[in-house]
Amino acid sequence: LAKTTQPISMDSYEGQEVNITCSHNNIATNDYITWYQQFPSQGPRFIIQGYKTKVTNEVASLFIPADRKSSTLSLPRVSLSDTAVYYCLVGDHPSGGYNKLIFGAGTRLAVHP
Amino acid sequence: EAEVAQSPRYKITEKSQAVAFWCDPISGHATLYWYRQILGQGPELLVQFQDESVVDDSQLPKDRFSAERLKGVDSTLKIQPAELGDSAMYLCASSIGGEQFFGPGTRLTVL
Questions:
Q1: For residue B35, what are the contacts with CB-CB under 8 A and spacing of at least 6?
Q2: B77 and B90 Cβ atoms separated by less than 8 Å
Q3: Nearest neighbour of A97 by CB, restricted to B41, B45, B95
Q4: Cβ-contact B91, B44 below 8 angstroms
Q5: pLDDT tens, residue by residue, A47-80
Q6: Cβ–Cβ of A94/B101 closer than 8 Å?
Q7: Domains assigned to chain A
Q8: What is the CATH number of domain B5-97?
Q9: How far apart are the CA of A3 and the nearest CA of chain B, in angstroms?
Q10: For a disulfide at B102, which of A3, B48, B60, B93, Cβ 3.0-4.6 Å?
């Protein structure tokens, strides 16, 4: 399974756009890229998934370059409630349903007033 | 909105005691997962069920941990005996072949 690397922590302010980049140099042809969000004392929550180019939903956008060796989660106009840990995962099944999800330490995003 | 239920939410026990956690997945979800999350780290998969069968328990410390899903619905994770290093959040998740939905977790403290 491809290993991912992402920043340990990030700080932002309310109303700003936040971009969290994840490196996955050994991504395989069949791998999808999935992002989860985790608030303190809660389980992780699926945010977005993509295979290539750009994916957008009501919460975030995911940008994946042509070589797929990295991806960027973009959170538009963050609020204090976006303070959480964000995990980037790579696996060879959509949404990691049948595959083992390998979580790294994630990126701790702190949004300030 | 359907959710994964877990109980208890918090458990404090002494080392060498036995503890058990319960998980009720979202109705109809055939796949159930147990994860352990140590403070400051990401969740680590302990065991994965497909219906009542174990499909992956490679990271489950089988000398002290056991998991069952007898009727392919709810599941129990047991630790016996508990050790200090078992203090962590134990998360249950379920899926129907797609996105994994996580429960709120059980925070275990071993004294």
A1: B43, B44, B45, B46, B90, B91, B92, B93, B102
A2: yes
A3: B95
A4: no
A5: 999 999 999 999 999 999 999 999 999 999 999 9
A6: no
A7: 9-112 (2.60.40.10)
A8: 2.60.40.10
A9: 13
A10: B93
